[in-house]
């Protein structure tokens, strides 16, 4: 447990670092956030903003409990940020229609599964239904670049110090206690650091001899100029999806590629995403394609993040590895971090996310254990 007014540095100003910085500053800590570029330019900007696990029945309860709790916090967060900063993250419960695809079939027992998790999900079969699909009316979306702008504005109101264009190149300790960060702008002393560096977290922590399974997974997106009301809900089939924004822009996503830290975009992905979009929106022409980009997800086993202290280094914490669901799971992650650092009761059982007891470490016990 830390004393109030204690200084904390976060490494990485994506949605995880920014929301944690905001909540920690509100809790009374003196917070700085370092980023090697301008804040909020990586995966958190590149993402689609769907606030739910996709095909949630594929995931273990450890991920679902975190996500469903986090999803319950998003609407209030958007209202709070809009009220305090004037920037509207455009949270909206536009609903998600999941089409049965070739690789992702909707299980027959889906109603029973949804009831167990108290989800209001309806299966649409037979006459009049749109293909064989599952309608999920409660799934919401957020406009993630706006969420990031609002978080940055709120952090500034709370006197969070932004140290941008500064890359952290190493961590320094003395007798097992963290004492600061080596950066491209010199040494930054600090007894408490939280690494929120997304896909780069594993690489950075390796330098401190800490091995966490966090790796980059590239996702490509296409932005299309539709019209407001052209598409009312989000649509997904075989992990490809369309996300309609309120002003008529439509996002088509996404790929999932293991290509190390390569952020280039490909003509194959552009074609595949366009074909998908055009199938559901035949009125669009390729002239409506505005932009293509990619982002690097912080890949982890079953999308379960690491949140909490790293046992080998006193003062060093991590919140990373959210894979496909960092936007979804950011509010719960921030609450968990605050509870750990203040000693307050956590909102849910945090054992599966703590680096020392992480779900992954227990997933594949060796034959000898
Ligand atoms: C195409 C795509 C679609 C997605 N769609 C969704 C979705 O619909 N819903 C959802 O919930 N999630 C989605 N995601 C996943 C989500 O975007 C990520 O899980 C989330 O953004 C991770 O946030 P983060 O803050 O950990 O990482 P990032 O946003 O990547 O931020 C990490 C920050 O750390 C900085 N950094 C890294 N190394 C250093 C260093 N050494 N020194 C200083 N700074 C450093 C980087 O510059 C960056 O600003 C999607 C991701 C992609 C790529």
Tell me what the structure shows:
It is built from 10 helices and 19 strands. With 369 residues, it is an alpha/beta fold. The chain folds into 3 domains: 1-94 and 140-214 and 300-363, FAD/NAD(P)-binding domain (3-Layer(bba) Sandwich), CATH 3.50.50.60; 96-138, no CATH class; 216-299, 2-Layer Sandwich (D-Amino Acid Oxidase, Chain A, domain 2). An 8-stranded mixed β-sheet has the order 5-6-4-14-15-16-13-17. Helix 1 runs parallel beside helix 6 and helix 3 (61-71) crosses helix 9 (326-342). The protein is globular. The two termini are 32 Å apart. The model is unreliable at 364-369 (pLDDT under 50). Flavin-adenine dinucleotide (FAD) is lined by residues 11-17, 34-37, 41-44, 46-50, 167-168, 196-200, 204, 219, 221, 253-254, 295, 297-298, 320, 322-328. Flavin-adenine dinucleotide (FAD) binds at residues 11-17, 34-37, 41-44, 46-50, 167-168, 196-200, 204, 219, 221, 253-254, 295, 297-298, 320, 322-328.
**Proportion in β-strands:** 25-35%
CATH architecture of the largest domain: 3-Layer(bba) Sandwich
Assembly classification: single chain
**Main beta sheet:** 8 strands, mixed
Number of strands: 19
Q: How many helical elements?
A: 10
Distance between the termini: 32 Å
User: In percent, how helical is the residue content?
Assistant: 25-40%
Shape label = globular
- Strand order in the sheet with the most strands: 5-6-4-14-15-16-13-17
Average of the residue pLDDT scores: 94
Rg, please? 21 Å
Stated plainly, the CATH topology of the largest domain is called FAD/NAD(P)-binding domain
Hetero compounds: flavin-adenine dinucleotide
Pairing-aware structural class of the strands and helices? Answer: alpha/beta
Find the CATH superfamily of the largest domain. Answer: FAD/NAD(P)-binding domain
Number of domains: 3
CATH class of the largest domain: Alpha Beta
């Amino acid at each position: 447990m830390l004393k109030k007014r204690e200084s904390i540095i976060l490494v990485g100003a994506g949605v995880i670092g920014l929301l944690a910085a905001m909540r920690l500053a509100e809790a009374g800590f003196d917070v700085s956030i370092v980023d090697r570029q301008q804040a909020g330019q990586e995966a958190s900007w590149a993402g689609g903003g769907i606030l739910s696990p996709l095909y949630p029945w594929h995931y273990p309860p450890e991920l679902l409990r975190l996500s469903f709790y986090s999803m319950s916090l998003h609407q209030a967060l958007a209202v709070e940020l809009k009220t305090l900063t004037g920037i509207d993250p455009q949270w909206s419960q536009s609903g998600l229609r999941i089409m049965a695809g070739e690789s992702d079939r909707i299980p027959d027992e889906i109603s029973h599964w949804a009831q167990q998790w108290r989800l209001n999900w309806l299966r649409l079969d037979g006459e009049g239904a749109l293909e064989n699909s599952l309608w999920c009316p409660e799934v919401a979306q957020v406009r993630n670049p706006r969420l990031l702008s609002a978080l940055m504005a709120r952090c500034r109101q709370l006197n969070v110090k932004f140290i941008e264009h500064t890359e952290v190149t190493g961590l320094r300790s003395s007798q097992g206690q963290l004492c600061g960060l080596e950066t491209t702008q010199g040494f930054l002393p600090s007894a408490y650091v939280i690494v929120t560096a997304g896909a780069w977290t594993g690489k950075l922590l390796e330098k401190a001899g800490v091995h966490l399974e966090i790796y980059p997974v590239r996702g490509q997106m296409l932005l299309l100029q539709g019209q407001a009301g052209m598409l009312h809900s989000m649509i997904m089939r075989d992990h490809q999806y369309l996300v309609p924004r309120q002003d008529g822009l439509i996002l088509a996503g996404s790929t999932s590629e293991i290509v190390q830290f390569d952020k280039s975009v490909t003509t194959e992905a552009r074609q595949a995403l366009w074909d998908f979009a055009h199938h559901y929106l035949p009125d669009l022409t390729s002239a409506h394609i505005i932009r293509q980009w990619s982002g690097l997800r912080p890949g982890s086993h079953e999308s379960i993040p690491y949140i909490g202290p790293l046992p080998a280094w006193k003062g060093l914490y991590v919140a990373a590895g959210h894979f496909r669901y960092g936007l979804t799971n950011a509010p719960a992650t921030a609450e968990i971090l605050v509870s750990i650092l203040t000693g307050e009761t956590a909102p849910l059982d945090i054992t599966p996310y703590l680096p020392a007891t992480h779900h992954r470490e227990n997933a594949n016990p060796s034959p000898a254990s």
